[in-house]
C-alpha cells in the first residue's frame, strides 16, 4: 500500500519514463557542447564564450551562414 495513492503511482511511472527519454538527449547535448565529436570541435566557444568563433570552424560547421556573412 502506497500512502500517496494511485496518483502517486502514476506520476512515478511518468517520471521514470521521462527520465529514460531525457537522459540520452541531455548526454548528447553535453557531448556536442564539449567538442568531443570532430564536427563540433570549436563550437563550444560560440555557445559558451560570447559567440566568438574561429572563421575556419564557422566555414566548416555553418557553410551557408558563413557564405552569407562573407567569411
Commentary on this structure:
The chain has 71 residues and is an all-alpha fold. It has one domain. 69% of the residues lie in helices and 0% in strands. It has helices spanning 6-34, 43-48, 55-61, 63-69. Helix 3 crosses helix 4 (63-69).
In a few lines, what is going on in this structure?
This protein is mainly alpha-helical and 71 residues long. The protein has four helices and no strands. The longest helix has 29 residues, at 6-34.
Number of domains: 1
User: Which value, in Å, is the CA radius of gyration?
Assistant: 20 Å
**What helical percentage do the residues reach?**
55-70%
DSSP helix count? 4
State the distance separating the first and last CA atoms. Answer: 66 Å
SS-based class: mainly alpha
Main sheet summary: none
Number of strands: 0
Name the beta content range: under 5%
Question: What assembly state would you assign to the polypeptide chains in this entry?
Answer: single chain
Globally, the shape reads rod-shaped
Mean pLDDT value: 84
List keywords for this structure.
single chain, 71 residues, mainly alpha, 0% strand
SSE topology:
Blueprint: H1 6-34, H2 43-48, H3 55-61, H4 63-69
Helix pairs in contact: 3-4
Amino acid at each position: 500500500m502506497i500512502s500517496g495513492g494511485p496518483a502517486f503511482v502514476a506520476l512515478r511511472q511518468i517520471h521514470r519514463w521521462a527520465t529514460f527519454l531525457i537522459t540520452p538527449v541531455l548526454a548528447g547535448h553535453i557531448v556536442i557542447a564539449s567538442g568531443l565529436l570532430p564536427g563540433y570541435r570549436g563550437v563550444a566557444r560560440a555557445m559558451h564564450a560570447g559567440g566568438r568563433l574561429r572563421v575556419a570552424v564557422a566555414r566548416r560547421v555553418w557553410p551557408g551562414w558563413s557564405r552569407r556573412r562573407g567569411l
